């Protein structure tokens, strides 16, 4: 796994990445299958259940890693650049659907 | 893939400015500096400087968009394998310029199942020395990357934009992965550059004024230096140089 911006965040980053990858690899294939075979209501149930599971499993290490990496971003003077990029192109939704319809998501 | 300014430049040279109406095109003259000075008339004469400037980028829109790169090809792997692979791409011996990868935001939409991830990639970039000197950048270049993975539509899109040097130009890269069969995945990549003309003008103004200052300083030094040479040569202060000495 690649390093973090700041060496002190790297162990937290790797723990978080490992947690996400495990969750993601368990999530993806059934999510595809669900979307094909199961009516709309149930697919949402699956996504909701898995979203909660992700929070449960990886939420704690994410909170720690996030705090560390946010400091690293600040220390490198990237905060303003990032904020500017977010204002210009929030990308709250996938580009193909948000572009034409004039997404209102400038926060 | 990320931060490859050198290859962008190469591509950029191949493409001429697209969609630029003839009326908006400008001559490509660069910066000229002229100097006139009256050395003789007064010892304190200030050299007179004359400058004319015009930009090399030659379309007069406030933001210049230059689409210049796109490619697509198929991977012989199912979509789900490719998308799982995305998170294992770095470190990669083929992409040693990507040094750090950090997730700064991630959400799993409980209604749609779409995963949105925002990352910051740190690149060690062998940028041309003149860029580093001119724009005050460094070897570290940072990229913001936003990805969406949608299992329902089997689509993954990754958009990235440079954070470093973004006051001058933004390079937007868009990658999409879609299945073409149960065993193959289509990769589509496009990139475009948006140059911020106002910032380029400010920068050329700054470079120009720096050049003018340097020229002014050097002109003064040159004048003082040459005055000394002339004084040493022609003012009769050194009697030991008389021809009859040897």
From TrEMBL, chain A:
Keywords noted in UniProt: Disulfide bond
Region ranges (Disordered): 80-107
GO BP terms, alphabetized: phospholipid translocation
Compositionally biased tracts (Basic and acidic residues): 80-91
One example GO MF annotation: phosphatidic acid transfer activity
GO cellular component: cytosol; mitochondrial intermembrane space; nucleus
Biased amino acid composition, Low complexity: 96-107
Pfam families, sorted: UPF0203
Superkingdom, taxonomy of origin: Eukaryota
Stated family: Belongs to the TRIAP1/MDM35 family.
Name of the protein described by the UniProt record: Mitochondrial distribution/morphology family 35/apoptosis
UniProtKB/TrEMBL annotation, chain B:
InterPro entries per UniProt: PRELI/MSF1_dom, Slowmo/Ups
Domain PRELI/MSF1: 66-238
Taxonomic placement: Eukaryota, Fungi, Dikarya, Basidiomycota, Agaricomycotina
Organism per entry: Boletus edulis BED1
One Gene Ontology term, aspect cellular component: mitochondrial intermembrane space
Pfam family, one: PRELI
Protein name: PRELI-like family-domain-containing protein
